[in-house]
Structure formats: C-alpha cells, structure tokens
Amino acid sequence: MHFLKRLAMLVPLLLVISTLAFALVRVAPGGPFDRERQPASPEIERAMKAKYHLDEPAWRQYLRFLGDLAHGDLGPSLKYRNHTVNDIIAQALPVSMTLGALAFCFALGVGIPVGFIAAARRGKWQDHAGNLFAVLTVCIPGLVVAPLLILLFALHWRLLPVALWCSPAHAILPTVALGLFFSGKIARLMREGMLNTMQAEFITAARAKGLGENSVLLKHAFRLAVLPVVSYSGPMLADLLTGSFVIENIFQIPGLGMFFVNSTLNRDYTMTVGLTLLYAALLILLNLLVDLAYVLLDPRVKYE
Amino acid sequence: MSEQEIRNPKSEVRSSGAAAASSSVESASQVVSPGQKAWQRFRKNRLAVVGAWFLVVLVIFVAAWPAVLKLASVSGVKGAAFAQLHDPDRLTDDQFQPPSPAHWFGTDVHGRDVFSRVMFGAQVSLLVGIVGAGVSLVIGVLWGAIAGYAGGRLDGVMMRFVDILYSLPSIIFVIVLITTLEGALKSWLTAIGSPGLGKSARLLFLFVGLGAVSWLTMARIVRGQVLSLRNRLFVEASRALGAGPVRILWRHIIPNILGVVIVYLTLTVPAIILYESFLSYLGLGIQPPMASWGSLIAEGADQMNPIRVYWWLIAFPGGVLVTTLLALNFLGDGLRDAWDVRGKD
C-alpha cells in the first residue's frame, strides 16, 4: 500500500519537474539555432522554428509538450536532426545502464568483502588495510582516478584500450573508475554494520549454542549488517548516474551523460527536458526498488 | 580519571602541594565545559590534527603565492625573472616541461607554470567550497530549525519536501540552472552597471547552486536536534518568561546545536569542492582564463596521447585535490568523534 502510494506520487512529481525544466530552458537567452552555419537567412530560421513549433506562444508549446508526453513522446532533438529524443534514449540508455550496473556490482563486490573481513579481523592488519582503502577511495574522485588509470594501464603498460565502448575489455577501466569511490563507502558501511551487529544479543545466543565463528558471522550477522549498505544503494545509484557524466566524457562512451551535458551546452531544449525527466523517473523508481529490497531483507521494517 | 586530570595533568602537580581544601575549590572553579572536552578529544586524534595543519599551510600558501609573485616582480632583476617564470597566465614556448627546480610541477600545453596554476586554481576551489558550505549552512539551519520547532503539520510538509529532494538528481538541476539562468543573470548584472560582476556570474552560480543542493543532510540533523531540545526545561522557562519563538531559537536552541552544525559544515566543504571540480571538469563550472582544480585536471586529461605521457599535468592538480579532500575528511571525522555526534546519513 505504501509503495502504491509512492508510485502514485511519481506522476505529479514528474509533472512538476518537467514544468520547471520546460520553463527554465526557455528562460535562457540564445536559441538552439544560434550556432547554425552562417548565413542562415531569416526565412530559413523562421521555417526551422515553425517546424519545431518554437514560434508559438509558450503556453501552446507547453500544452503540446504535455500532450506528447502523455503519449510517451519526448519530441524531436533540436541538435541531432532526424533523431527523436526517444531514439537517442533508446540508444544511449542501455550503454549507461550497463556501465552503471557494472560499477554497482564492482562497488558491492569489492566493498562488502573488504568491510566484512575488516570487521571479522577487527584490530588486525586486515582491518587497518580495509580502513586505509576506504579512506583513500572516498577521497579520490573519478575525475582523478580515470585519467590515472588510462595513463598507467592504457598508455604506459598498454594492457587495455584507452577509450570507446565496443568490447568487454573496453568496459574494465570505466567500471573501476566509476565504482572505486563507492566501494570505499560500502566497505566502511559494511564494517560499521558488522561491528554493531556483533554486539547484538542474538549473536551472543548463536555463539552460546556452539555455532562456529564463520557460521555466526556469515549466516546470522551478515544479513542484518548488510542493511546500511542496502539503504545506501539508493543515493549511490543517484551518484552513479551522475558520476558517469565524467567517466563517459573521459572514455568517450556514448551514454546518456554525454548527451545530457552536450544538450545543456547546445541549448537542445527537448533533449535537456527529456533527459532530466528520464533521470528523475529512473531515480525515483530505483529508490523505490531499494526500499522494497529493504523490507524483504529486514522483516522488522513494515510500511503500513 | 577526573575531569581535572583530563584537562590539565600539570595542575595536579601544582595542586598537590596545596592544601586539600584549596584543591577542591580549584577543581570546582575548573569545571570543564563540553566544548573544552571535545577539544581535548580532538587534539588526541593525530590524523585530524595533521589534516588541520595541512589545511592551514595550504591556505597560507594559496593566499601568499600571488603576493609573493607581486613582491618578487618589483624586487630586482632576479625577482622579476622568478615572477615572470611563474606567471600563471603568461604563454611561453616551454611547453610540456617535466617538473624541475624552475617549474616545480612542470609546465602545460601553453608553457605556463603548473604550480602557479594549481595555486591560483586553489583559490577558486577553496572559495567555492567554503562559500557554498556557508550557503548550505544558512538554508539547512533555517529549514531544520523552523521544521523542528514548529512541529506538527508544517514539520511533516517541510521534511517530506526534503525527502523528495533527496530522491532527485540534484546535480542535474544545478547543471540546468547554471546553463540556463547564467546568461540572464549576466545581462542583468551588466545592465545594472557592474560588468566586473557580470564576468563572475558563473562563480556566483557555483556558490549558490552548489550550496542550494547540499543543505538536505544539514536540515535533517538540525531538525532532529531542535526536536530534542525544544521541550527541555530551559526552553520552557524562557517561554514562560515570554520569549517569542525567534528569540528562543536564536538565544537558546541554536547555540546548543552549534557543535553539531560545525561538524557537518566541515564535512560539507569537501563534498562541494568535489561537486565544483566535477562541474569544472565537464566545462560547466569555472571558465577559462580562470581555473580550478577540476578544470586543470580536465586540461591535463585533454593532453593524454599514446606517444608521450605528460603525467604531471594530472598527477599534481589531482594530488593536491585528493590531499585536500583527505585532510578535510580527517578534520570532519575528528570533529565528529570529538563532539560525539551520531552520524545519520
């Protein structure tokens, strides 16, 4: 019921966001056709504007935009002629989603074991190494890691491709560059979660029953200790989506981030509005999924 | 350990010779405030202290470097040569020199001294971090204090708003805001007769925009603190004496949450510096000829090629950025532990 309510909230929220974005891009001075090759005669410009309905009063443009939106149509791109925003999303979204999912798995795959081992060997060298890893990675942003990775692995040792997105080998460096930051955060959360859980009474009870240490940690403590990581995955997905702007820029990956940044620079109105809307919808839905996972993992949490 | 011992081990030596009575009087007058206790805990945290010192040194360097160059340029032939060598904007033919005694961080594609550029870029990066954090402080404290103090319906609506903003990609709004409203602000500022301000419109937007998306955690924390304080006896006493909500908040509640607020302020600064470098990297932040750490790293990344590796163009700006973030995080964590603030993200 709670989740249905939140799903229902999605529609008015997206409406507000799209209205705001629609208004904002039109406040900006300069239009999408300003940087056309000169000389563009006034007739041509007028014809272009008429074609995209930019000559109409703002309220009619807005109504047209809403009508198209209701049909799931985000309109034509003003910069990439002959492509609709829907086309471009259909091409770029899978790329960004793949990169995001890979980085997400990398962050979890590295962060959870590191945090788990650090907590299990508290005070030993594994713990110190894990803490060092967490502190360092959280302070090294993707825009520093990515060029350094390219310098070392692609240019110096020539092990991996420098850029582009065409084979699994091309995905390795972007995945690491994007995911490293989050793996440190997850390691920290996992360690804290484990340390808190290990003080709980049910852990003492499990030990008292004579269970082995591994079984106590893996089967009993882990499930509760991983909850902070789960609740962090919501904000993390948001940061992964926007963090990939820089990564896509450095590695020349044709994902959503590249199109979004270019669209704001090119005043490609329809594209900016469409992608903003897409990002907002994606994030809200992903957050909802994270909360659902939370309920499934922790039976104590109940939404009425 | 008694409070007195924690505060000053030497005082024990001093008071041991005195009569027992006088020592008890002394300890009564030496009640350690929570702030002092926190300060002692903080000083024991070596990483946090190192971080704080690093930041002090960095700020001194960054503030003094332009003055040093100016001073050198008017003091003799050698000084002038030094100043010219390190002029961050002078284009020369010494392209891509690796680090050397003359150019500590090497030179870039236009033969400019990278060390000087990093120092001047630091001004922008640090300024955006500090002012942006200040903006987030004002919004967050006001929002959280009003919601927490008012309670009830208003609180519910205000915090629901924060929840919604949490689930949205804030940086995307900053990008849209910067690219759309900047032109409007620029022409408006020039129209009211300050073309100099018009040029720094982008900087103003970074201050306000980044502050405006970073206040959410602050608002949540402040609200929680205000909620727990507003029903305490001293607040009730003040209310009974006829104090209005503004006076109660300003005189009684805000001073009590200052420690928590400062802790989160220090953790907001690195986050905003990171945001700024992110935007500048994408070309959406600081515009040339101004530079920040983010735009310097972007310039370095542009020069990457398979034939020659100019590692210093990335390693030095990136290294300074990472070290500063590390220092700020150590400082923030140290302050948080010292004030024993419960983390709540």
In short:
With 304 residues, chain A is mostly helical. Chain A contains 12 helices and no strands. Helices cover 76% and strands 0% of the residues of chain A.
Describe this structure in words.
The complex is a heterodimer of chains A (304) and B (345). Chain A is mainly alpha-helical and 304 residues long. Chain A contains 12 helices and no strands. In chain A, helix 4 crosses helix 7 (168-198), helix 6 (142-156) crosses helix 10 (227-251) and helix 10 (227-251) crosses helix 11. Chain B is mainly alpha-helical and 345 residues long. Chain B has a single domain, classed as MetI-like fold. Chain B is built from 16 helices and no strands. Chain B has helices spanning 3-7, 9-16, 20-29, 34-44, 46-73, 76-85, 114-150, 152-166, 170-191, 195-199, 201-212, 216-229, 233-240, 245-281, 293-302, 312-339. The longest helix of chain B is centred in the middle third of the chain and has 37 residues, at 114-150. The chains are: A mainly alpha (304), B mainly alpha (345). The A-B interface holds A 13, 17, 21, 24-25, 27-30, 135-136, 138-141, 143-144, 146-148, 150-151, 155-156, 162, 232, 234-235, 238, 241-242, 245-246, 249-250, 260-261, 264-265, 272, 276, 279-280, 283-284, 287 and B 164, 166-169, 171-173, 175-177, 179-181, 183-184, 187, 270, 274, 277-278, 281-284, 294, 297-298, 300-301, 304-306, 309, 311, 314-315, 318, 321-322, 325-326, 329, 345.
